[in-house]
Every structure is written in C-alpha cells, then in structure tokens.
C-alpha cells in the first residue's frame, strides 16, 4: 500500500464524479418512486458498501418505506469473491408478504445478490428487487440482473463511495479505479 495519507493517491482514474452520482441517485429515485407507488416496501441496505448510495438514493424516493440492513460477505478482505457467502448481520424486520428492495453498491459475480434474493424469497417476501449503483456484468457467474442500475462498471477494481479495498477508501466521495500496484503484492 502507498505510504501517503492522501486517499486520492491510490486512484488510477476517476470513473464517476460526485455530481454524476447525485444525478444518478435522482434518476433512480424517480424510477423507484414510480415502481413502488402505493406500496410500502422494505428497503434493505447491503452493508457496508451500500451505505453511501443507500442514503443518497433513499432521500430521492418519494415513497413510504421501512429501512433495514443486512451484511453478507464473500470477499474477506481480498479483491476476488471467495464464493462462500456468510451472513454477518441479519435483518431485524419480517419480510413475509412485503415488497423488498435490496440496495447494493456493486454487483459483479452476482452470487451475493442471488443469495440475498433467495434468502428473502424463502422467508416469504412478496417481491424482491435490487437497485445497484454499479453493475459489473463482465464478472457475472450466475444468471441474475438487478432491476435498477446506475452504471455499467468496467471489469476493474473500484473503490470509493462505499466501495473498499481491505476496508479502506470507502470515504472517497466518488468512484475510482484502484491502482493495481495497491493490491498486486
């Protein structure tokens, strides 16, 4: 890792700026307002990465909604999914007969999203959909597509706006590509 305290020093290039992300949250918020009109969904934030996106997106939704969180992990600090998914923190609300919207920062292999959707449907959710900031289709290993997408993401390791490398860089206000020299050791 770089010895610099400057978070920007590990960014190879910026992919999506603060302003672009704000515009995308407004667009998706309008889509979700229309999709959930007359309903009272449970909006489920996938911890920890989706917190920034969830907060900005949720404020753009003009819908009565409950909020809950789930923390599932398949990375364990690396750059590649282990394929083994563990529930670190479970929901506090009952999803039976409820419309559920999962909010994710990024979908790549799709394994975690598939796991969460299956889990919530098994628990009796009426419907389960996903809003995601970044869709990294090039890495998909299961047949799943998020219903609400901010951006298609190139097949590069991204950080910022909630996304991390080994727990770091979530607090960058934009999405950037991590310099390969930071993780190729």
Instruction: Tell me the number of strands.
Output: 9
pLDDT averaged over residues: 93
Count of individual helical segments: 3
Classify the beta-strand content into a percent band: 25-35%
Instruction: Give the terminus-to-terminus CA distance.
Output: 9 Å
Pick out the low-confidence regions: none
Task: Please summarize what this structure is.
Keywords: Cytoplasm, Glycosyltransferase, Magnesium, Metal-binding, Nucleotide-binding, Purine salvage, Transferase. The protein has about 180 residues and is of the alpha/beta class.
How would you characterize the overall build of this protein?
This protein is α/β, with parallel strands linked by helices and 185 residues long. The chain is built from three helices and nine strands; from the N terminus they run E-H-E-H-E-E-E-H-E-E-E-E. The protein has helices at 18-35, 51-59, 111-122; strands at 11-16, 42-46, 66-73, 86-89, 99-107, 127-135, 148-152, 158-159, 175-178. It has a six-stranded mixed beta sheet. The chain has a three-stranded antiparallel beta sheet with strand order 1-9-8, with helices on one face. Helix 1 crosses helix 2 (51-59). The protein is globular, with a radius of gyration of 16 Å. The mean pLDDT is 93. One of its GO terms (cellular component) is cytosol. Residues 20-165 form the Phosphoribosyltransferase domain.
